[in-house]
Amino acid sequence: MRVILTGGITGGHIYPALAIADQFKEIDRDAEFLYLGSDEGMERYIVPKYGYDLKYIDSRWFDRSSPLKLAKTLFKNERGKRQAINVMKQFKPDLVVSTGSFVSVPVVLAAKALKIPVYIHEQNAYPGVANKLLSKYARRVFLGFEAARKYFPSEKVVYTGNPVRNEFGEQNRDLARSELGIAQDDFAVLIFGGSLGAETINDIGLAIINKYGDDRNVTILFGTGKDYYEHVNNRLKVGGKEVPANVRLMPYISEMAKMLSASNVIICRSGALSTAEVTMAGRAAIFIPSPNVTGDHQYYNAKAVADNGGAVLITEDGDVELRVLNALKALRTDGALLEEMEQGSYKSAPVDAAKIICEEIISDVKARRR
Fold first, then answer.
1. What is each CA distance from 266 to 110, 223, 241, 295, in whole angstroms?
2. Is a pLDDT exceeding 80 seen at residue 62?
3. Structural domain boundaries of the chain?
4. Residues flagged as binding site for UDP-N-acetyl-alpha-D-glucosamine
């Protein structure tokens, strides 16, 4: 089987595509893959790292702020479609798997032109523009959240959850702590705001360090995002201070599965990828949804986990830092509550998402060939 993958710019679109590809390889060791993405997105770093071939095509997000910008959008996406058609004629894929973002638009349109079956995965409770637009060309639309069902043709929809790589469900906390050099009896808190960072999350992280920076029984793992690392580092060193010994400050978290496993509580945004990875690890979370996303989908992502008892949902209004500190204190001092939240978190996990997606696709492809 030959498969083209597309979807990019952010890890939230890229990692689900790679999880699906990994599962395909477990089913069919001879399967071949080609990833079509943008040279402006994170895929240029992530995809080759995981051993998949990557080619770039032109694409542009739907800028409708002026007729000129809209014309540029249409022109660039049409050029990307022609590029994708040429790639597909050479690669001869059996199918295309799309996980969204604007880079997927020319790829899916190219597949439609060549009558290659398309399968879409939507990660969020409120779908992105690209997936809503392209769903009419898809044979199946797989959903990360049941709440997204109403936005797509009902006959195409299959609820699966969000696929994550197997490593997130295979970690052992004691081993992860040993490998990371974290004491087995420490209370470990992981804080991150994504690959680029989030100012609100970083302010929360600084407040937590101010509260627990001298506590020898607490380990704070803090991913600031590459855009904020120097700023956060400098704030911690104001007045000639040093970063506390129990704080590990990082611009980017490269061993996410291991750090999730080693932690007791996760504090982060509630993008689709983060919620899926946190729940697969079965960790209690304090989610602070970004208010600056389409359809407030991060709120609904977080609510789905919170409703299962796996997370505390804190909106970004009022004294958010104080509310996070209070929630963290409750989880640190109440072991039974922490254990209940871990169980609720794993209850929300998309355990077999990638497997279900691949089996559905293979079944449909075989049916089309009969």
1. 41, 11, 26, 24
2. no
3. 2-163+351-369, 167-347
4. 10-12, 124, 165, 195, 253, 298
Residue 367 tokens read as: 């049916």
Structural tokens at position 263: 């932690």
CA distance 350 to 282: 11
For the stretch 72-117, pLDDT in tens is 877 888 999 999 999 999 999 999 999 999 999 999 999 999 999 9
Whole-angstrom CA distances from 270 to 40, 278, 360 are 24, 10, 27
Phi and psi at residue 223, to the nearest 5°: -95, 110
Helix, strand, or coil (residue 253): coil
Given this model, what pLDDT does residue 166 score? Answer: 85
Give the global pTM.
0.86
- The Cα–Cα gap between 115 and 198 comes to 41
- The answer as to CATH 3.90.550.10 being correct for domain 167-347 is no
> In this structure, what token pair is assigned to residue 72?
């540029």
CATH superfamily of 2-163+351-369: Glycogen Phosphorylase B; (3.40.50.2000)
Query: What DSSP element (H or E) covers 275?
Result: helix 272-281
Alpha-carbon gap, residue 197 to 228, rounded angstroms? 6
Is the pLDDT score of 64 beyond 70?
no
The CA distance from 334 to 189, in Å, is 15
Mean of pLDDT over the chain: 94
The DSSP secondary-structure symbol of 242 reads: -
Q: Which residues are annotated as a binding site?
A: 10-12, 124, 165, 195, 253, 298
The arrangement of strands across the sheet holding 218-223 comes to 247-250, 218-223, 187-192, 265-268, 284-287, 311-313
